[in-house]
Write a structure and sequence with these properties.
Elements (H helix, E strand, L loop, with lengths): L2 E5 L5 H12 L5 E6 L18 E2 L10 E2 L4 E2 L7 H5 L5 E5 L4 H16 L3 E7 L16 H13 L2 E7 L9 H5 L7 E2 L6 H7 L5 H10 L4 E5 L2 E5 L5 E6 H7 L1 H9 L4 H12 L3 H10 L10 H18 L5 E3 H7 L7 H11 L4 E2 L2 E3 L3
Parallel strand pairs: 1-2, 1-7, 2-6, 7-8, 10-13
Antiparallel strand pairs: 3-5, 4-6, 8-12, 9-12, 10-11, 13-15, 14-15
Length: about 350
């Protein structure tokens, strides 16, 4: 039987979802349903992808479209999903939230039936799937809530997995631990080869922090959203029934009540309940996009990085690590240079490379 997973938040969540599958699935075949939703620093077009935003999707294998290595985003959109499809130990399929909560429920239900899956596993890296809506740092609750509501409407038995509590910078770890059952279970200390390959080029901070914590790195790590602690809980995963997750998530319950038929309708529910929605925020950010550098000169970059790291050490004396994405974006470079940066550090600054993070300790 094929296992069915949902990467609840898009972005790098398929990576964390595959890590959870690897640690619990014993090699079973799996499909990961994911939103095509990159952050604004990756994709210049705000909001999640629809199927028509890609070419080369496989529409024949399942009721939902499979992303393949031959899939391409339609310009000017940018997506990491096609390259991920060639690295993950699972198949990757597209969830389209533009059809609203009932449309999502139909996609999930039909896919589960086609696979013969008797349950769905929803995975959220960071834990904002359990957000109450009043957390001051909450930034992107809508698509997580849509996933919960759609699973309830689909009528498929669902387990919600939270991993890396607080590592997305939205709900603090200590807040989430009070909402999670027991001590959770470890993801395992050995990073799978496929994950090491992905983290060489993929820009996801939360997935990099999750992998680092699972591998035993501990201490404060500087990210784009501030310093986040890597603790003994950061590399663990908790499981709870869908009903319990819904009790924590007012937005998911609001979506179940309103049953919006479009993504725009779901945005309105979020605006009414929480006073904001992340898709509208992305539209505002798109107007203020900054020009970034997409090429690296070795000497220039290494000099800039060394100077920047010294500033961070002085300004954050307790921090032990910094994410590669934080360093790259702070220096004004495009995320696509990530793999080149990894190669440069391995050859010329091996003491800085605390894969998948950078070390701030001299």
């Amino acid at each position: 039987m094929t296992e069915l997973f949902i990467a609840a938040g898009g972005g790098g969540d398929p990576v964390g979802t595959a890590l959870v599958h690897t640690s619990t699935g014993a090699g079973a075949d799996a499909v990961v349903l994911t939103y095509g939703w990159e952050r604004p620093s990756v994709d210049p077009v705000p909001g999640p992808f629809a199927a028509h935003d890609f070419t080369g999707l496989d529409h024949d294998a399942l009721p939902v479209a499979l992303v393949t290595t031959g899939t391409r985003p339609v310009a000017p959109r940018v997506s990491t999903l096609p390259r991920l499809a060639g690295h993950l130990p699972t198949r990757l399929a597209l969830l389209d939230p533009h059809e609203g909560v009932e449309g999502l429920a139909d996609q999930i239900g039909r896919t589960a039936r086609a696979l013969g899956a008797d349950r769905v596993s929803v995975v959220d890296v960071g834990g904002d799937v359990l957000a109450h809506g009043d957390e001051p740092t909450l930034a992107s609750p809508l698509l997580d809530a849509l996933a919960l509501a759609a699973c309830r409407l689909a009528g498929v038995r669902t387990t919600v997995h939270v991993t890396g509590p607080g590592l997305d910078g939205e709900v603090p770890e200590e807040t989430l631990l009070a909402r999670l059952p027991g001590a959770g279970s470890g993801l395992g200390p050995t990073l799978p080869p496929w994950a090491a390959d992905v983290l060489r080029w993929h820009p996801s901070e939360a997935s990099a922090l999750l992998a680092a914590a699972a591998a035993g790195l501990r201490g404060p790590c500087l990210t784009r959203s501030g310093a986040l602690p890597l603790t003994d809980r950061s590399g663990r995963v908790w499981s709870l029934p869908l009903s319990r997750a819904l009790e924590h998530n007012p937005l998911a319950r609001g979506l179940l009540s309103a049953r919006p038929a479009t993504l725009a309708g779901a945005e309105e529910v979020s605006l009414k309940l929480y006073g904001f929605n992340e898709v509208a925020r992305e539209r505002r950010q798109a107007v203020r996009r900054h020009v970034t550098r997409d090429r690296i000169d070795r000497g220039t970059f290494l000099g800039e990085l060394d100077a920047w790291l010294q500033v961070q050490r002085a300004g954050h004396p307790g921090a032990r690590y910094v994410s590669v994405r934080c360093a790259i974006e702070s220096l004004g470079y495009d995320w696509r240079v990530t793999e080149h940066v990894r190669d440069l550090l391995a050859r010329h600054r091996p003491g800085v490379d605390a894969f998948p993070l950078l070390s701030l300790v001299d």
